[in-house]
């Protein structure tokens, strides 16, 4: 097994390589505006660090969000392209699940990432492996009663300390955690989901209302 994991659903552009026993190389850079520019060089860097070639990869793992449309599609399209070219399966995992998996919190907690527009993408967890609510996007004040008293991880929690006063690491998702969680699921016979994006809301760019199509006569 040699899994290439990547995630661009958050400002972190993160890539890792897992050989079925451990993470053999990883790279993470936080830059919300350069996903497309940073991702492929990070893949090259991780492969070089591990001393492996791309054609040795046996599977791709990609974070499916939730996340903003532009950043998220960079990772998903790259993963789909690698899978098609290499002829290997592409597995999708919730980005929040990888964030939660990397935490060291015992007991119930919340994972939250920045959704912009003064909102967060979030979900509740019974433990680092068990999500108990579907991913959602909300204003922090609107979910204060649902998360009251719970520890929280993620950049979304750090942005809104009034709602998440008990924030913990990690702040950003890592592909190393994404890959490790995928390996654990595969070894348990639980195949990760298909790589379908969790957008949760419509993209910012939309066709205006009352738009008229003008065609030449």
From TrEMBL:
Entry keyword Hydrolase: no
Annotated Gene Ontology cellular component terms: cytosol
One Pfam family of this chain: TsaD
Entry GO MF terms: transferase activity
Domain Gcp-like: 32-154
GO BP, one annotated term: tRNA threonylcarbamoyladenosine modification
Keywords of this entry: Transferase
InterPro entries (UniProt xref): ATPase_NBD (IPR043129), Gcp-like_dom (IPR000905), T6A_TsaB (IPR022496)
Protein name (database record): tRNA (Adenosine(37)-N6)-threonylcarbamoyltransferase complex dimerization subunit type 1 TsaB
């Amino acid at each position: 097994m040699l899994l290439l994991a990547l995630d661009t659903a958050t400002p972190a552009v993160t890539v890792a390589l897992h050989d079925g026993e451990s993470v053999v190389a990883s790279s993470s850079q936080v830059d919300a505006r350069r996903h497309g520019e940073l991702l492929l060089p990070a893949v090259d860097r991780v492969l070089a660090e591990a001393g492996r070639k791309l054609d040795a990869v046996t599977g791709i793992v990609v974070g499916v969000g939730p996340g903003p449309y532009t950043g998220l599609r960079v990772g998903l399209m790259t993963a789909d392209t690698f899978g098609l070219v290499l002829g290997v399966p592409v597995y999708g995992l919730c980005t929040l699940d990888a964030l939660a998996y990397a935490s060291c919190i015992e007991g119930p907690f919340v994972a939250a990432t920045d959704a912009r527009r003064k909102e967060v993408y979030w979900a509740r967890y019974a433990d680092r492996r068990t999500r108990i609510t579907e991913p959602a996007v909300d204003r922090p004040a609107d979910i204060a009663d649902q998360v009251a008293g719970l520890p929280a991880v993620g950049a979304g929690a750090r942005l809104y300390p009034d709602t998440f006063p008990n924030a913990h690491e990690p702040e950003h998702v890592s592909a190393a955690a994404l890959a490790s969680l995928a390996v654990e699921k595969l070894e348990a016979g639980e195949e990760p989901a298909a790589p379908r994006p969790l957008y949760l809301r419509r993209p910012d760019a939309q066709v205006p209302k009352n738009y008229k199509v003008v065609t030449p006569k």
